[in-house]
Specification:
Layout: E1 7-10, H1 16-23, E2 27-30, H2 39-46, E3 51-54, H3 61-65, E4 72-75, H4 82-90, E5 94-96, H5 101-121, H6 124-132, H7 139-145, E6 155-159, H8 163-172, E7 178-182, H9 188-192, E8 196-197, H10 200-206, E9 209-212, H11 224-229, E10 235-238, H12 247-256, E11 261-264, H13 275-278, E12 283-285, H14 294-312, H15 324-332
Helix pairs in contact: 1-14, 5-8
């Protein structure tokens, strides 16, 4: 075994398989928990480290100036953090990231949307309580009391035609659903798949299931007026941004029977969930778990670990985002 010569700081919890991989070859300091460290805490913990494995820490030039031993930063969301790229490149620090991180998040969220459609439409949470409560005296009792709807031959409305909306539409093809989508611009890929580009009002009026996937800066895209236009049998799902939905209006729509059910993975004041939603038996409440995929997260974390080991061995790290740093050091050699 190689004698440990490098020290690495893992600033957020990572899957243990990646931590053990690093510990086999270098010294590792792990921060337990999922919240970003404060600026001062991160500098203090990373002082003397050669490698930093980061999830979402805000890292800038001033911080890097306080960490002169740092040689490589492996970051989960590196391709979006241009400020980190620029600061690290100026200081000759390598930055790596697993490729196309958002791709598996898209797939995971799309799967969850389908699951929430089915769970809401078939009233699975209510059915579970029905069974646990000893009410299943005859199968016709459940058929009478738990009538719902499935995706076969249903109309599904997608508010937002980005990567997640497209992934959901592909999955719906196997259910024989009619797909509508509302977006400022037509989406050729969805059009080729047979989806229909419609105005939001028409989508709400026609859809049996509605999924919301819109950018972060859009506030209350769906509120009381929109819920009033939906079918009373409709299932509404939000896995995008909590602030895009008026949760007071949603809770009212659920309690008054304006819509049949809702499935949520994000919340307006996350991590707080309103008591009205907690009390709603026809609301399925997920804890922002769209990306909770074991194998995908282990692969990403192992990729980050191996990129650090590449750098320690003097190799070009996998997933390198600023190769100009290596080119500059090679020209000096």
């Amino acid at each position: 075994m190689t004698t440990p010569t490098w020290r690495a700081l893992i600033s957020h919890e990572l899957p243990e398989v990646a931590v053990e991989r690093l510990r086999s070859e270098l010294q590792v300091d792990t921060v337990h928990g999922y919240l970003d460290l404060s600026r001062a805490e991160l500098i203090d913990r990373a002082r003397g480290a050669h490698a930093l494995l980061s999830y979402s820490d805000a890292i800038d030039d001033e911080m890097l100036a306080a960490l002169p031993d740092l040689r490589v930063i492996a970051t989960h969301w590196g391709e979006w953090n241009t400020g980190l790229h620029e600061a690290a490149t100026r200081r000759g620090i390598l930055v790596t990231s697993p490729p196309d991180q958002y791709n598996w998040i898209v797939g995971g969220v799309a799967d969850l949307i389908i699951g929430l459609f089915l769970a809401g439409g078939r009233r699975m949470v209510e059915a579970d309580s029905f069974s646990r409560g000893g009410r299943m005296d005859h199968h016709e009792a459940s058929n009478h009391h738990l009538l719902g709807q499935g995706l076969f031959d249903a109309t599904v409305g997608l508010i937002g035609a980005g990567r997640i909306g497209q992934a959901v539409a592909k999955r719906l093809a196997g259910f024989g659903s009619t797909v509508l989508y509302s977006d400022p611009r037509p989406n050729p890929e969805l059009d080729r798949a047979g989806a229909e580009h419609t105005a939001l009002d028409e989508l709400l009026r026609r859809s049996d299931f509605v999924s919301l996937s819109v950018p972060e800066n859009e506030l209350h895209v769906v509120g009381a007026a929109e819920f009033a236009k939906m079918k009373q049998t409709a299932v509404f799902v939000n896995t995008g941004r909590g602030r895009a939905v008026d949760e007071v209006a949603l809770a009212r729509a659920l309690s008054e029977g304006a819509i049949a059910a809702a499935g949520l993975d994000v919340y307006e004041k996350e991590p707080e969930i309103s008591q009205e939603l907690l009390d709603a038996p026809n609301a399925i409440l997920m804890p922002h778990a769209g990306g909770a995929l074991r194998r995908a997260r282990e692969r990403a974390a192992l990729f980050m670990a191996e990129s650090v080991l590449d750098a320690m061995r003097g190799r070009s790290p996998r997933g390198l985002l600023n190769p100009e740093v290596l080119a500059r050091s090679e020209s000096r050699a």
